[in-house]
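Backbone-to-sequence.
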């Protein structure tokens, strides 16, 4: 039951998604609708992009239309930043996921789902499990956690999948053993296995990786009994998380989707010049 914001002047959000999306695109559309905005879902597959129109020309074209905000998903790192540099004086640019770089609104969704548990970050240990090197969600999560300052962050992955540019001021410990990394953990953020990217980086097969790092009921039992599970989706069942855990009582995976609408509403609301 999300309240509609009263009497805002109608604005328009355009979704410009060059990569597939279910949660992010739909959440932005729902959020805009809840706020009384109009939405324009730019149809990349039937657009002039297929005739070879460049990303920059597409942006310049859209900026001539009565659009207030543009949520952009793109396979290239810093695509949203490039858009902001090109047309940011005319349109608010929102990064809806760029390459392996950032996915800020997904991270805000994760942090909101954790806050809703009523847990205190100061006393919290958070584990992030998976391909951290290639995860835009993990990168944005680490930015958010730098602000929220949990007691400890456990990064659980093979050394090969650990980024080398992690902020040294964060209370991070790396574990290449799932069981050890889950000890005393309050929140487990499971990342999607990005099979196509991991195949090139790992020295082990995806099956061996899954054998060692899949969150199973046995592994979950090592974390605190109250530990919650988050996953940005989409889930690869029985690769990064056992199918039986996806909708188990400790899972907040679907609740994250619900939080995602409120988060995008907050983003649109604040970039319209409002304060929460
Ligand atoms: N978490 C996430 O970005 O999901 P979608 O790809 O479905 O938007």
């Amino acid at each position: 039951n999300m309240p509609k914001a009263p009497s805002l002047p109608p604005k328009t959000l355009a979704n410009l998604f060059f990569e597939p999306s279910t949660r992010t695109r739909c959440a932005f559309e729902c959020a805009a609708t809840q706020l009384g905005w109009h939405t324009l879902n730019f149809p990349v597959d039937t657009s002039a992009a297929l005739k070879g129109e460049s990303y920059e020309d597409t942006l310049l074209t859209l900026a001539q239309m009565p659009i207030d905000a543009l949520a952009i998903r793109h396979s290239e790192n810093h695509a949203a930043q490039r858009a902001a540099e090109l047309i940011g004086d005319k349109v608010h640019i929102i990064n809806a996921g760029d390459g392996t770089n950032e996915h800020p609104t997904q991270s805000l969704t994760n942090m909101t789902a954790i806050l809703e548990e009523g847990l205190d970050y100061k006393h919290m240990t958070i584990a992030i499990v998976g391909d951290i090197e290639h995860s835009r969600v993990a990168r944005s999560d680490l930015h958010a956690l730098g602000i929220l300052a949990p007691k400890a962050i456990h990064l659980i992955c093979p050394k090969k999948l650990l980024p080398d540019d992690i902020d040294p001021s964060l209370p991070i410990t790396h574990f290449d053993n799932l069981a050890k990394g889950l000890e005393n953990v309050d929140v487990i953020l499971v990342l999607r296995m990005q099979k196509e990217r991991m195949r090139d980086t790992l020295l082990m097969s995806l099956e061996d990786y899954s054998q060692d790092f899949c969150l199973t009921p046995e592994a979950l039992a090592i974390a605190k009994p109250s530990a919650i599970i988050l996953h940005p989706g989409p889930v690869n069942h029985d690769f990064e998380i056992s199918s039986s855990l996806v909708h188990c009582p400790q899972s907040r995976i679907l609740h994250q989707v619900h939080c995602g609408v409120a988060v995008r509403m907050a983003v649109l609301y604040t970039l319209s010049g409002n304060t929460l």
